[in-house]
Amino acid sequence: MIQIRPASAADLPALAVLHQAALGGPGEQATLAHLRALALVYFAAKSDQFLGVATGQLAADEFEIHAVAVAEAARGQGLGHRLVRALEQGAREAGAAAAFLEVRAGNTAARALYTGLGYTEFGRRPTYYRDGDEAVLMRRDLREPPCGA
Fold first, then answer.
1. Starting at the edge strand that comes first in sequence, how are the strands of the sheet with 135-141 ordered?
2. CA angle, 6 as apex, 66 and 122 as ends, to 5°?
3. What pTM value is reported for the model?
4. Looking at residue 63, what is its pLDDT?
5. Does an H or E element contain 93, and which?
6. Residues of 67-106 as b/e, b for ≥16 C-beta within 10 angstroms?
7. How far apart are the C-alpha atoms of 51 and 46, rounded to whole Å?
8. Domain spans of the chain?
């Protein structure tokens, strides 16, 4: 059975490896430092195997989702959905009224996930990513009941 739970300090090194493998970007040590600085880190695991990680940060009553990463072998099982919902619940409990994120315009799977969870586009950042892809800015009011629950 796959469980979703908040990460402890002991979980972070393995989650940094998963985060980097799924999303690329900075090396493991930089990712680990990033994870430690975040307000909320949740992960999906089956036994001792880490399958997904989701991170975000609270600023006043706003919550920004930084990343949702699922191991390639575990994709298509609804883990991204469950991880986002866990982040939202943790953010609500911490006092957040809204959640925000940015996603690559070309990442149709992630955009479909967020749209299905009730996020709406409110802007774009042209040529935001190094490869020239633009960022789609999305938000959801956390005071509203979740759709796709």
1. 3-6, 40-46, 49-59, 62-70, 98-104, 135-141, 120-125
2. 25
3. 0.86
4. 94
5. helix 79-93
6. bbbbbeebeeeebbbbbbbbbbebbeeeebeebbbbbebe
7. 7
8. 3-141
CATH architecture group of domain 3-141:
3-Layer(aba) Sandwich (3.40)
pLDDT at 15: 81
Task: Name the residue type at position 17.
Answer: V
Low-confidence ranges of the chain (pLDDT < 50): none
CA 107 to chain centre: 14
**Residue 48: per-residue pLDDT:** 81
CB atoms near residue 145 (< 10 Å):
7
Residue 6 forms beta bridges with which residues?
42
